[in-house]
């Protein structure tokens, strides 16, 4: 009986999901990213920072979408925690710069204090990067709390024992074959990423 209903409902459900699913407007995204890029280039430090790839001897590690939760059944980070901790220890020992590129904490489904309590050791290890000025934190849609809540800076300072600047983006500057990039090229021209 179940297979019959699956067969019967599959096409209408696929049609509905296709019709009403999220379809980002590419032009609007390109425009927003280009504006953010210009804002960071023109006024580094407000919405983002500019870093030379020569800094930290070119040693950068970028982590994104960790979604640290509260260790319940919906917390996807739990299975990745041991690998994350081992990687962080290795990169910290070798003087890398850590860029946490958004959605590091799952704050749609959890309160910050729950996440902080669940992953205290991970935050302590991230704090080691911060203590040597090698930590950049960028907010994402699942941790907008960092950009919107007036108490967020207090929470971060309390967690890391020093102030943490939260950014909307970061620009890495460097050169390929002695040709500079990031300050001379437009990063997202319409139609480039199809």
Structure description:
The chain is α/β, with parallel strands linked by helices and 194 residues long. It has a domain at 49-181. 42% of the residues lie in helices and 16% in strands. The protein is built from seven helices and seven strands; from the N terminus they run ααββαβααβααβββ. The protein has a four-stranded parallel β-sheet with strand order 2-3-4-5. A three-stranded mixed β-sheet has the order 1-6-7, with helices on one face. A hairpin with a 2-residue loop joins β6 (169-176) and β7. α3 (81-93) runs parallel beside α5. The termini are far apart. The model is unreliable at 184-194 (pLDDT under 50).
Which secondary structure elements does this structure contain, and how are they paired or packed?
Layout: H1 2-20, H2 26-42, E1 48-52, E2 60-63, H3 81-93, E3 97-101, H4 112-118, H5 120-131, E4 135-138, H6 145-148, H7 152-160, E5 166-167, E6 169-176, E7 179-181
Parallel strand pairs: 1-6, 2-3, 3-4, 4-5
Antiparallel strand pairs: 6-7
């Amino acid at each position: 009986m179940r297979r019959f209903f699956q067969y019967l409902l599959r096409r209408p459900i696929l049609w509905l999901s296709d019709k009403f699913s999220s379809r980002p407007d590419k032009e609007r995204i390109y425009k927003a990213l280009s504006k953010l890029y210009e804002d960071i280039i023109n006024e580094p430090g407000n919405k983002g920072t500019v870093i030379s790839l020569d800094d930290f001897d070119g040693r950068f590690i970028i982590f994104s979408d960790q979604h640290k939760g509260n260790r319940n059944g919906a917390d996807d980070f739990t299975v990745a925690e041991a690998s994350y901790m081992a990687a962080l220890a290795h990169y910290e020992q070798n003087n890398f710069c850590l860029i946490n590129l958004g959605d590091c904490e799952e704050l749609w489904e959890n309160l910050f204090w729950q996440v902080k309590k669940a992953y205290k050791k991970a935050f302590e290890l991230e704090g080691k990067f911060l203590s040597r000025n090698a930590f950049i934190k960028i907010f994402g849609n699942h941790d907008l709390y960092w950009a919107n809540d007036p108490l967020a800076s207090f929470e971060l300072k309390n967690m890391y024992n020093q102030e943490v600047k939260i950014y909307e983006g970061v620009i890495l500057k460097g050169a390929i074959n002695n040709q500079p990039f990031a300050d001379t090229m437009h990063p997202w021209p319409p139609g480039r990423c199809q």
